Amino acid sequence: MYADALTNGRKIFAVAPMIDWTDRHCRYFHRVLTRHALLYTEMVVADAIIHGPRDRLLGHDVSEHPAALQLGGSDPGKLVEAVRIAADYRYDEINLNVGCPSDRVQSGTFGACLMREPQAVEACVAAMKRMTTLPVTVKCRIGVDNQEPEAVLPDFLQRMIGAGADAIWIHARKAWLQGLSPKENREIPPLDYSLVYRMKRENPDVFLGINGGISDLDTAALHLDHMDGVMLGRAAYQHAALLADVDHRVYGAPARPADWDGVRDTMMAYAAKHMAEGGKLHHVTRHMVGLFQGLAGARRFRQILSTDANRPGAGPEVIAAAFAAVDFEGGRDVLSA
To answer: Which of 100, 113, 124, 140 is catalytic?
Structure first.
């Protein structure tokens, strides 16, 4: 994947790993919209894989590929064991989280706080590389707290490259581990795209992708003029319709109108299967709420999926009712956004 991107100039579009959001149902939905985008799991802690319900944590639909498993941890031995266990689930990539700033991540000594311990991350990546033939990648920040990104990031990247990382995805903000919430850490620290671009110019033979504050495909395309890959998080989740253009805009597939009837029918069938296996309708529909932001009828679409999907006895017909509320020919409606 990454070697092909470097050799052939093929760009990669990814949907970022997001805790509580990019679960298996979200990834299935996103895959219905885009065949080629790289989809990431939520961060899964190595200890949880070793000691917890593996099928629930790692199970996924075969249609999700290409799909990357993001791990959280700082103990090389535990990460290696998690990678060994995950091999049975046939992900396409293993990614190490060095970017999440939440308190619960810090208490486990992983995530963004590892930007202060590059030697530990280096050891983890090297150990994981010895365990698997899959690409091993890292998702990081440009620094944390009072670190100076201009000094910290180049050293961090060289350590990751030396350890054998196949790709590095850089969230172009610092993380403040004290004083800012995870939400604030996605919005308040200033973006430094120019520094990330410079890292790519200085490492032309290494896959470097960019993340942070990218809101639409036009902006993504501008970043791809400088970087090997672009990763969207909240924008891809909250405005999921943009994913329907990714295959054409990024991967060169023929342009064609989105098949919203096909999306509806596919998600209804998926929801029915999930419910037959004991799941709840809202497990699926909660990820679809932002699909038609800005279109006439989008507000009613959200109301139906948010409210009716949680009613006792609700079934996949709720999805049909929600789609029927959208006026696909009526253009945009600022009141529905």
So the answer is: 100
Beta bridge partners of 39: 15, 67
100 classed as catalytic: yes
Q: Give the 3-state secondary structure of residue 71.
A: strand
Residue 114 is encoded by which pair of tokens? 């590892």
Contact 24, 270 (CB under 8 A): no
DSSP string covering 163-225: HT-SEEEEEEEEE-SSSS-HHHHTTSSPP-HHHHHHHHHH-TTSEEEEESS--SHHHHHHHHT
Q: pLDDT tens for residues 211-269?
A: 999 999 999 999 999 999 999 999 999 999 999 999 999 999 999 999 999 999 999 99
Q: Which amino acid, 258?
A: A
* Distance (Å, whole) CA 205 – CA 228: 10
The pLDDT value recorded for residue 335 is 36
Q: Let me know if 7 is exposed, middle or buried by CB neighbors in 10 A (0-12, 13-18, 19+).
A: exposed
Residue 299 has φ and ψ, to the nearest 5°, of -60, -45
- b (16+ CB within 10 A) / e for 136-167: bbbbbbbbbeebebeebbeebbebbbebebbb
pLDDT tens for 79-129 read 999 999 999 999 999 999 999 887 666 556 788 999 999 999 999 999 999
